Automatic annotation (TrEMBL):
Region (Disordered): 1-28, 215-247
Pfam families in the cross-refs: DUF3000 (PF11452)
InterPro entries: DUF3000 (IPR021555)
Organism: Trebonia kvetii
Compositional bias per record (Low complexity), positions renumbered to this chain: 16-28
Lineage: superkingdom: Bacteria
Biased composition (Gly residues): 227-241
Protein name (record): DUF3000 family protein
Length: 247
């Protein structure tokens, strides 16, 4: 499953364009198009409510709509986020929510969340053999906190080394961390699990970008707020200082 694919036009209200007939449940006679659309609309509402809750309390994260790939599922919506530290870009991320009413062989529900996070890191951290395990734990710890009913998790952690040649030979090498992951939210508590997916995604981006999961002086979100937990997985881990300055 690739995060980048042919973009789909996003309808007003956040609903992404459905895949052409023949690939969705309605085309196969499973359920009805109206029921499927209503289920997806409710999931989108939960996703957007969680997004708004994050942007209300965090000024170091910007979340915007992103064209959702249309070949992965009959229904899809996507967001992209940028993390800033000291006024400079410190990391970026994408999140997609997929819905296939007919289900999928490897899914445990009719919904699937797909995320990608990228952040510059110091060379020493990129060389740490534990980076993959630690990076994956940032995601699973955040899911355990915010969306504990998640199922069928899958993903990769990649070290990225960029070197310049020719006209860019004078540019210093850069090192980065990239995580791609996906999971199915619990269908029994779908609204909470989908909202929790946004909170977990933002926690993951914050950790990768070297930001605190809970900004000082702000109210706690999701299950962290419900249970009164303290800061979770604070991310001051020596992430790189490179990146564009915030406008």
């Amino acid at each position: 499953m690739r995060l980048a694919d042919t973009p789909a036009a996003v309808r007003a209200g956040g609903d992404a364009e459905a895949v052409p007939a023949g690939q969705g449940a309605a085309a196969d006679g499973v359920g009805s198009a109206a029921t499927d659309s209503a289920a997806f609309a409710a999931a989108v509402a939960a996703l957007e409510a969680a997004r708004d809750a994050v942007t209300e309390v965090r000024d170091d994260l910007e979340i915007e709509d992103w064209p959702a790939p249309k070949r992965l599922a009959p229904y899809a919506i996507a967001f992209e986020a940028t993390a800033y530290r000291d006024g400079q870009e410190a990391g970026s991320a994408k999140l997609m929510l997929l819905h296939d009413p007919a289900g999928h062989e490897s899914w445990t529900s009719t919904f699937r969340v797909v995320v990608q996070v990228h952040a510059d890191v110091e060379e020493e951290m990129a060389a740490d053999p534990m980076l993959g395990e630690v990076g994956w734990s940032w995601l699973t710890d955040a899911l355990d906190l915010h969306a504990p009913g998640y199922g069928a998790p899958s993903g990769t952690v990649t070290r990225v080394i960029t070197e310049g040649y020719g006209g860019k030979a004078d540019e210093p090498p850069s090192t980065a961390f990239e995580l791609r992951g996906s999971w199915c939210p619990d269908g029994e508590q779908l609204d909470d699990e989908i909202g929790g997916a946004i909170f977990a995604w933002c926690d993951l981006l914050a950790a990768a970008a070297g930001l605190p999961a809970q900004p000082p002086g702000t109210r706690m979100l999701g299950r962290r707020g419900q249970h009164g937990a303290g800061q979770h997985g604070a991310g001051q881990h020596g992430a790189g200082q490179r990146g564009r300055r915030r406008q």
